[in-house]
Design a protein that fits this description.
The structure holds two protein chains of two kinds.
Chain A (H helix, E strand, L loop, with lengths): L1 H6 L16 H29 L4 E4 L3 E7 L2 E7 L2 E4 L6 E7 L3 E7 L2 H7 L20 E2 L5 E12 L2 H7 L11 E4 L6 E5 L1 H17 L4 H7 L1 H19 L3 E12 L5 H70 L3 H19 L2 E5 L27
Antiparallel strand pairs in A: 1-4, 2-3, 2-5, 6-8, 7-8, 8-11, 9-10
Helix pairs in contact in A: 5-7, 6-7, 8-9
Chain B lengths: L1 H12 L1 H19 E4 L3 E7 L2 E2 L7 E4 L6 E7 L3 E3 L8 E3 L5 E12 L2 H7 L3 H20 L17 H20 L1 E12 L2 H67 L6 H16 L5 E5 L12 H6 L12
Antiparallel strand pairs in B: 1-4, 2-3, 2-5, 6-8, 7-8, 8-9
Helix pairs in contact in B: 4-5
The chains are: A alpha+beta, B alpha+beta.
């Protein structure tokens, strides 16, 4: 009975080296409590170790930056690609902001065309009237209806401004939050930065289109139309100051309503015809110009040739005349020279003429001579073949 | 003495456990007596339901635990709301044309106390905003004609002005009353009622036909102009060339004329030689000659043998004058 005596000391505290004596049930409870307490201490110690080691460790990918909220306050410093360590939650909270290029598509198409493009359905194209709310389209400045499809590429260039100014999902890389009708559960739309940019782009496209001529928007000056939309979009995004930069806005598809397409194609055809006609006329004009140049050159060359020939001829004639005149004056029998020249000439011309008729003349007798002049040469007649 | 040492030793033995307990307790106390506000938020604090004058900004703040104080945090970043009701309602323009206009509002909670007092949740706020948007939209569109919504003349197209007016109208109703700041308003869809879109198609088709005819006509006219111009050019150029050629020929003739003086030395001989030359040129292979025996040299054909011996033959020398 020594032990109970010792237990009844004035502080009722166990002393070193002393063994308490409990009932077996109590002893088991004390043991399990000691174990739980030891486990609790171990957990707390592990938590502290984790807090100062792995808990604050994070890796930043190249296509993102990390912003830090220290007790909720956004720190100035941004963490870029690498691994980093900071005190973890609840001291710091890290926000990952994607900085790679992102794309937003905007369609002003018929509902079934959108489904067709997104691969949801392959329906026959509708030519009926456009149903508001279901089909989408744009009105041009000349009150024509057109369908277009746009693609905008943008980037978050000032992540801190973006996070501070623009409502984004808790994880900014996630898609926009979808909000539903609490009564019906039907989706009513989305909330977030992409929704904001999409609405902004739609508004810009609508305003730019509302001052376009239909032909310019669809055919003639669609590049200008596209550039105008991009410029206005950049301006609108800059005005909002949400840390986003628009890299490009591209008009990926454009067409008139399906049931007016034939009429639009006819205009293109007419334009082509007109263009061909003008081209042919230009071709003809060039050909005529070349022909004119040739004819002009011929006329002038001939004139030059005439000038040279006429002078050369007269020169040779004069030279010949001088020679004959000399002989004619110097020779006593000048008549013989002339007779010889005369006879030579007659001989030459008579020998060259094809048909010659010599008729003997008799004094007082009339003769009748019948000659078939210039008989037609005989040609073989060819039968026309079909 | 030994009991005291034992007591001290025992207290000392449990200090790490006690420290741990204190730290854990401190953490719990801090958690209960503090709250964090993010840089993207403002917080309204109520004490026994009464709204504190000051709004808590980003950082760590002291609070009395619930139910003494309640914290209501509001995200103050830009939100975009496109009006889920009223998108498909027809609106009339000043000139009585019905259009369907869809708008969106970019707004933020600027005064969280006013917002908390009058609205409480964003969903309720957007519900109010939606009805304001419908009212203002109809009011503003009614002040403009249809040709001010779409016009090829950028000066007459007033969509930008309409958006600004709508922004002012919505801001007037939403800013003071609900603590919302309306940053901008945009028109995201402009459509026509179903039956009108069909009529637009018909008009578009007839307009296209006119345009096609215009192109064809223009092509023909311009082509004709080009051709006429080219032909005119040809005529003018050839006329100039002819004139120039005449000049050149005249120069040749003038140069040749200088040589004619030589023939004055014996005009008869010159004429005779010219005649011979002319004969050579005139008579060629295709010429048919009909001559009588009086012509030289065929006069020889009529001589008789006896005459040939008795009479000296005197040939006709033709036109040569002795």
């Amino acid at each position: 009975m020594i032990a109970p005596e010792k237990n009844n000391n004035k502080d009722n505290k166990p002393q070193d080296g002393e063994q308490h004596e409990y009932s077996p049930g109590m002893e088991a409870l004390v043991k399990s409590l000691k174990f739980v307490f030891a486990m609790l201490i171990a957990i707390i110690i592990i938590m502290f170790i984790w807090l100062f080691t792995f808990g604050g460790y994070f890796i930043v990918q190249p296509q993102e930056v990390v912003l830090v909220l220290r007790f909720g306050k956004l720190m100035d410093y941004m963490y870029k690609e690498d691994w980093h360590w900071i005190y973890p939650f609840p001291i710091n909270e890290i926000i990952r902001i994607p900085i790679s290029e992102q794309t937003i598509r905007v369609d002003f198409l018929r509902a079934e065309d959108v489904k067709k493009l997104t691969g949801e359905q392959a329906l026959k194209r509708n030519t009926g009237p456009l149903i508001p709310g279901k089909d989408n389209y744009l009105l041009t400045g000349d009150a024509n209806i057109i369908h277009t499809r746009w693609e905008m590429v943008y980037q978050i260039t000032e992540p801190d401004v973006y996070f501070r100014r623009c409502l984004c999902p808790p994880k900014p890389g996630d898609p926009d939050e979808v909000f539903t009708d609490p009564k019906t559960g039907e989706s009513l739309g989305t909330r977030g930065p992409r929704t904001l940019l999409k609405n902004l782009l739609q508004s810009v496209i609508l305003k730019v289109t509302a001052r376009q001529i239909v032909d310019n928007a669809l055919y003639g000056k669609h590049n200008q139309y596209e550039t105008e939309v991009q410029r206005e979009m950049e301006k609108a995004v800059n005005n909002l100051n949400i840390g986003v930069t628009v890299n490009s806005v591209v008009l990926t598809a454009k067409e008139p309503p399906l049931n007016t397409k034939a009429a639009f194609d006819e205009v293109i055809e007419a334009e082509q015809e007109s263009s061909t006609e003008k081209s042919k006329a230009r071709e003809y004009a060039i050909e005529l110009e070349n022909q004119t140049a040739r004819e002009k050159s011929k006329i002038l060359t001939e004139a030059q040739a005439y000038k040279i020939r006429v002078v050369a001829d007269i020169k040779s004639e004069v030279a010949y005349f001088r020679r004959i005149l000399k002989e004619y004056r110097e020779n006593k029998n000048s008549d013989i020279i002339l007779a010889a020249l005369y006879n030579d000439t007659i001989a030459k011309i008579l020998s060259s003429a094809k048909d010659k008729y010599v008729i003997r003349t008799q004094k007082g007798n009339y003769q009748e001579v019948r000659i078939h002049m210039n008989p037609e040469p005989k040609y073989k007649k060819f039968k026309k073949t079909k | 003495m030994s009991t005291e040492i034992q007591e001290k030793h025992s207290a000392f033995k449990h200090w790490p456990t006690m420290l741990l307990g204190i730290i854990v307790a401190a953490i719990f106390i801090i958690a209960i007596f503090s709250f964090q506000v993010n840089s993207t938020q403002l917080a309204v604090v109520t004490t026994f339901g009464k709204v504190n004058k000051n709004v808590a900004e980003a950082g760590l703040h002291f609070r009395w635990p619930y139910p003494i104080q309640s914290i209501h945090k509001f995200d103050i970043r830009l939100r975009c709301f496109d009006g889920n009701i009223g998108k498909l309602e027809e609106t009339y323009t000043k000139d009585g044309k019905n259009v369907l206009i869809g708008i969106y509002v970019i707004y933020r909670i600027a005064d969280p106390i006013t917002f908390f007092r009058n609205i409480v949740t964003v969903e309720k706020g957007e519900e109010r905003l939606n009805s304001i948007m419908r009212t203002v939209k109809n009011g503003v569109i009614g002040q403009y004609n249809f040709d001010q919504l779409v016009n090829t003349d950028p000066g007459k197209m007033k969509l930008g002005e309409i958006e600004a007016k709508m922004r002012d109208g919505i801001a007037e109703l939403a800013e003071k009353q609900y603590g919302l700041q309306i940053v901008s308003v945009g028109i995201k869809s402009l459509q026509l009622p179903e039956n009108i879109s069909k009529k637009v198609f018909d008009r578009m088709i007839s307009e296209r036909k006119v345009v096609a005819a215009k192109y064809r006509e223009e092509g023909k006219t311009i082509a004709a102009e080009i051709k006429n111009e080219a032909e005119k050019f040809k005529k003018e150029e050839l006329a100039k060339a002819e004139a120039k050629a005449k000049e050149i020929k005249a120069e040749g003739d003038a140069q040749a004329a200088a040589y004619y003086a030589e023939f004055r030395k014996s005009p008869e001989l010159a004429a005779f030689l010219r005649k011979l030359e002319s004969l050579k040129r005139i008579i060629n292979k295709k010429t048919t000659l009909i001559l009588d025996t009086n012509s030289v040299p065929f006069d020889l054909l009529k001589l008789k043998a006896e005459e040939f011996g008795a009479k000296k033959h005197q040939p006709n020398l033709g036109p040569v004058k002795k």
